């Protein structure tokens, strides 16, 4: 997910996306625990996407406070 794509989303869409990604990350961790994870790099990518979303959400929040 690119930062430009995230900036085009509304705040509600960003919140929903974060929740979806966290749920997916939970499922991947579970699969990793029972050695059924096919793509371990996906966990890294999801963590980065969550961080990117949260960073942009915080930036938007700070811009609206001014």
Automatic annotation (TrEMBL):
Gene Ontology biological process terms, A to Z: translation
Keywords, comma-separated and alphabetical: Ribonucleoprotein, Ribosomal protein
CDD domains (alphabetical): Ribosomal_L29_HIP
UniProt keyword annotation of Protease present: no
Entry GO terms, CC: cytosolic large ribosomal subunit
SUPFAM superfamilies: Ribosomal protein L29 (L29p)
InterPro entries listed in its UniProt record: Ribosomal_protein_uL29, Ribosomal_uL29, Ribosomal_uL29_CS, Ribosomal_uL29_sf
UniProt keyword Ribosomal protein, yes or no: yes
Gene3D superfamilies, sorted: 1.10.287.310
GO terms for MF: structural constituent of ribosome
Family of this protein: Belongs to the universal ribosomal protein uL29 family.
Protein name: Large ribosomal subunit protein uL29
